[in-house]
């Protein structure tokens, strides 16, 4: 409802002045005209105006308006429709001629002149005079996949807080060793891992983009694998913030206390994941104390094939019906006297700042396509490319597990053993 201007004469009540502006004629005619004007301002305008009059003690005027309103509702034909015309709003004392009224189309304002305003119901406005509501542009939240804007803020807060996230500010960030076993000795009984070179190239490029110095070792025996890992652990990592080890090989189950599984050297001899991880503990690698040590294992955890639940069969993106997935599995039998004793548990150092990501659940096979590489590495590379700039490692691995779990007819789901103390955001 528009605010009525103050009365120029002190002796005239505010409501009476408003009524006198409603038109000429008797006070009842003026009241009816005012009612009509108020009703054009909305269904509640009149009743609110009468209430204001009563609150300010102008009961007589309020009674007159209420009576006229009731009469208007009972005899609507007595109220004739108004012939609404544009009214030019101008400063007091300014003549209409100076505004160019009658000389110029009111719908085409010129600089320095005011726009005509139509008083009356919106339904009676000319189409060209209906105002457009201008709203400030509000940027829409971007879908980042994990949640929303609150998640983005939480991630940003964690990145800048050394108590919540590891600080990866060094450049290079750390060293990354990739062991890629493709060709195995005949006596090992292990098949050539066709397609593994695709995985190796993907990860070499990906970790280079994440500011790691990448080294690749191919076709190592079990002894050579251990030697390469020990050499890496003995290097000085004081100026670096992180260390990554990737093993691409055949694998199997193995006796363990903390980390399951084992990977094969090209001679057919296994190296347990637990041994690989313990090479980088506080004793073997003091310059990495308190720094994240990441292990990515693309190898089978056993021989079981997961048929999954009964769902509609679909071929994953990039995989055709004639593709040839192979398992990275092979049988493994423990020799006598190799079972760890229960009292050895207390003597092992507690793992910290360590994450081991497996391509498959322990006991099951891990699938590798002979043309496009393994499901796990292909997905890991894709997820890192899309989300590593804004999400922590744990969230990235959840994305990988979800994407791999829906591939193929035989099923596979990656998993991890996480002993990190903080969130880890890669440097991108």
From TrEMBL:
Segments of skewed composition (Pro residues): 1-11
Q: Where is the Caspase family p20 domain?
A: 172-304
User: Keywords on this record?
Assistant: Apoptosis, Hydrolase, Protease, Thiol protease, Zymogen
Q: Which PROSITE patterns match?
A: CARD (PS50209), CASPASE_CYS (PS01122), CASPASE_HIS (PS01121), CASPASE_P10 (PS50207), CASPASE_P20 (PS50208)
Alphabetically, the GO molecular function entries are:
cysteine-type endopeptidase activity
Looking up SUPFAM superfamilies in the UniProt record yields: Caspase-like, DEATH domain
Please give the Pfam families that the UniProt record associates with this protein: CARD, Peptidase_C14
The record places domain CARD at 21-68
Q: Where is this region: Disordered?
A: 1-31, 312-346
List the active site: 250, 300
Q: Where is the Caspase family p10 domain?
A: 344-408
User: Which family does the record claim for this protein?
Assistant: Belongs to the peptidase C14A family.
Please give the PANTHER family that the UniProt record associates with this protein: CASPASE RECRUITMENT DOMAIN-CONTAINING PROTEIN 18, CASPASE-3
Protein name, UniProt field: Caspase-9 isoform X2
Task: Name the source organism.
Answer: Camelus ferus (Wild bactrian camel)
Gene responsible for this protein: CASP9
